[in-house]
């Protein structure tokens, strides 16, 4: 039996409700009657009137000895304190309450050993502001204000989840006490199949209770997760989420499995975090990723992950001062943003098989990162993939030289820059055998045309030009004659010594690049 005051929506602000004393009194009186009906059904041999008097005594409205219906209520109080039964509270809209105003309905709830709130609405920021032994849990409830779980309580029990299929309109937070203890003593998990608009904040917890216990079909909705100064003894698993704006983990220890599976996260920050168990981020998408001063002691999986949602040159995937003590898997990863592994330590070679770098990532990733990836393939004998990343490493080196030349002047390491540039133009750092092959065909054709023109006289330089060019050509031919290995060729083509030497040098260079490229495309 519920009155309209119990089932009606409450004001959007706490102050508006607390200023309405009449509404508060009406709510408390209606709640007394409602709870009395429930209790009378659960406890045999007790009348509704006796239950009303019992709850009124908790509010100090009446005393046991002053009411004729108070007989046996002391025994009821004792029986309730020893009972493990939970009362079902359905469809009530709970407002805020201030004990100083004399209408504290929390006193009624604290007198009941167990409570299950089903389809209830809460227009307050917490249920209890002090320790309570009442076991309570929530099913299909809606929390309209930021919800806070700070005070220590016994929890709903090891077989029950604290929040099941609940909707938090403005976020929820859990905080440990001064010695880092969790606010719940016994609970299967904190959340199951819930929706959280706003931020989930966990601060200063030392907990053996899983945070999430969702069904596989549930699509988790949550805007932000902030975890600081916590230690989790049980697994932390979050899968199949809608887009999460931000996850911020700092100064925290995960002693069991940590999993973010098939999650889309705009920004993931991990700072000073120890993952003592397996860390699995399978098939997740990260708009940006920062891991700093953290340790992964067990397997770390980033398989089929996408790093970056939209390509941009203003951000990167940064792993700074990170240590991986076991196997690390980036297989099938797609990098839309540049990757930075320069300050990362790998005890075992990571796996980058099948990973893909988009244009922005290839252009902005540093040389050392590509060298680390190349080395990971060389360690297992995968020469084809190693050669592909060798080319990316050399291209990053070319960009590095070019940027340094802009800073120090065009003469800075000029010949080194020239050689790297030539290596890129001829064969893409050994990755293309078509380029040197086409150059060989072009050079052979050029020699054939030159010989045909020499014999047929199709193109003859004007006398004025010839008189200027001939002395220079004679000097070059005399210098080329000093290369004794080619003298047998020179005897058949007198006057073309310099041309033969130049073409031979170009042909040998292209042939060498062609052979290197073919070898690098051959799987060992």
Automatic annotation (TrEMBL):
Keywords: Membrane, Transmembrane, Transmembrane helix. The chain crosses the membrane at residues 433-449, 458-479, 499-518. It comes from the Bacteria. This is Uncharacterized protein.
């Amino acid at each position: 039996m519920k009155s309209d005051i119990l089932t009606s929506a409450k004001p959007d602000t706490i102050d508006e409700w607390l200023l309405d004393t009449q509404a508060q009194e009406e709510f408390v009186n209606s709640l007394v009657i409602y709870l009395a009906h429930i209790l009378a059904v659960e406890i045999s041999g007790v009348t509704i009137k006796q239950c009303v008097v019992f709850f009124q005594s908790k509010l100090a409205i009446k005393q046991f000895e002053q009411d004729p219906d108070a007989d046996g209520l002391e025994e009821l109080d004792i029986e309730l304190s020893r009972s493990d039964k939970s009362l079902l509270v359905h469809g009530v809209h709970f407002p805020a309450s201030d004990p100083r105003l004399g209408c504290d309905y929390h006193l009624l709830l604290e007198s009941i050993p167990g409570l299950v709130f089903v389809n209830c609405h809460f227009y307050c920021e917490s249920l209890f502001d002090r320790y309570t032994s009442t076991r309570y849990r929530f099913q299909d409830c809606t929390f309209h204000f930021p919800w806070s779980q700070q005070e220590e309580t016994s929890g709903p029990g090891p077989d029950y989840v604290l929040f099941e299929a609940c909707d938090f309109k403005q976020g929820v937070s859990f905080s440990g006490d001064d010695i880092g203890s969790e606010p719940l003593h016994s609970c299967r998990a904190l959340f199951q199949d819930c929706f959280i608009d706003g931020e989930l904040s966990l601060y200063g917890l030392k907990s053996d209770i899983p945070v999430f216990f969702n069904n596989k079909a549930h699509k988790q909705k949550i805007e932000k997760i902030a975890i600081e100064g916590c230690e989790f003894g049980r697994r932390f698993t979050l899968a199949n989420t809608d887009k999460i704006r931000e996850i911020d983990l700092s100064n925290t220890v995960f002693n069991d499995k940590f999993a973010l599976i098939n999650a889309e996260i705009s920004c993931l920050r991990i700072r000073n975090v120890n993952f003592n168990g397996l860390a699995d981020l399978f098939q997740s998408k990260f708009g940006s990723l920062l891991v700093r001063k953290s340790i992964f002691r067990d397997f770390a999986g980033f398989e089929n992950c996408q790093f970056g949602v939209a390509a941009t040159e203003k951000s990167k995937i940064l792993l700074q001062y990170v240590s991986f003590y076991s196997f690390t898997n980036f297989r099938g990863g797609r990098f839309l943003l540049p990757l930075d592994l320069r300050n990362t330590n790998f005890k075992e070679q990571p796996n980058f098989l099948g990973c893909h770098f988009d244009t922005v990532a290839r252009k902005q990733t540093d040389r050392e990162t590509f060298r680390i990836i190349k080395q990971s393939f060389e360690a297992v004998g995968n020469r084809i993939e190693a050669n592909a990343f060798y080319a990316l490493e050399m291209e990053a080196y070319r960009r590095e030289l070019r940027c340094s030349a802009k800073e120090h002047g065009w003469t800075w390491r000029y010949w080194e820059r020239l050689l790297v540039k030539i290596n890129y133009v001829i064969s893409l750092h050994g990755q293309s055998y078509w380029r040197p092959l086409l150059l060989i065909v072009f050079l052979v054709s050029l020699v054939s045309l030159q010989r045909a023109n020499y014999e047929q006289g199709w193109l003859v330089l004007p006398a004025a030009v010839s008189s200027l060019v001939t002395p220079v050509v004679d000097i070059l031919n005399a210098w080329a004659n000093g290369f004794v290995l080619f003298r047998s060729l020179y005897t058949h083509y007198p006057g073309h010594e310099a041309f033969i030497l130049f073409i031979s040098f170009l042909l040998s260079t292209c042939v060498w690049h062609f052979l290197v490229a073919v070898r690098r495309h051959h799987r060992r």
